[in-house]
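STRUCTURE:
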């Protein structure tokens, strides 16, 4: 299998993913691993219907998608893997989904969140989970769109 990008993006599948990342990476499969979305059938159908024909889509719980990614089913695909938050990424990694780099794309602001960029805000739990991923050997970077330069998230936390 070829995972070409692992990204945390609160919005999951949206225009930026479809219009910028998919063509830049020549991805032909989008996997969304998110427990909340997996339980909302209507929202899941809406996201699936937004994806152009010819691009495979798999949406499910963290555990279901971890199992799919560990199987041979997507072995010939260029997979763009999306998580909704740092907790999902950490859980998948600990369930055996192997990735060396994690892209922080869009993480909305909110109560007790510190803004690192115009699209990324983190709270203490997010920081702890990202630190755990780094401790496991994952490089965590921020890059909103492919034309942006990557920035290490750690340098922006003060």
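SEQUENCE:
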């Amino acid at each position: 299998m070829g995972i070409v990008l692992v990204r945390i993006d609160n919005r999951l599948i949206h225009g930026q993913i479809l219009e910028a990342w998919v063509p830049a990476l020549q991805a032909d499969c989008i996997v969304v691993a998110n427990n909340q979305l997996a339980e909302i059938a209507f929202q899941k159908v809406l996201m699936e219907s937004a994806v152009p024909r010819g691009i495979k889509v798999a949406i499910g719980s963290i555990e279901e998608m971890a199992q799919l990614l560990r199987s041979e089913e997507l072995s010939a695909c260029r997979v763009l893997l999306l998580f909704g938050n740092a907790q999902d990424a950490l859980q998948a990694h600990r369930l055996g989904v192997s990735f060396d780099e994690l892209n922080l794309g869009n993480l909305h602001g909110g109560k007790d969140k510190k803004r690192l960029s115009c699209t990324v805000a983190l709270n203490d739990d997010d920081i702890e989970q990202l630190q755990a991923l780094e401790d496991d050997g994952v490089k965590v970077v921020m890059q909103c769109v492919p034309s942006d330069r990557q920035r290490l998230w750690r340098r922006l936390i003060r």
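REMARK: The chain has six helices and nine strands.
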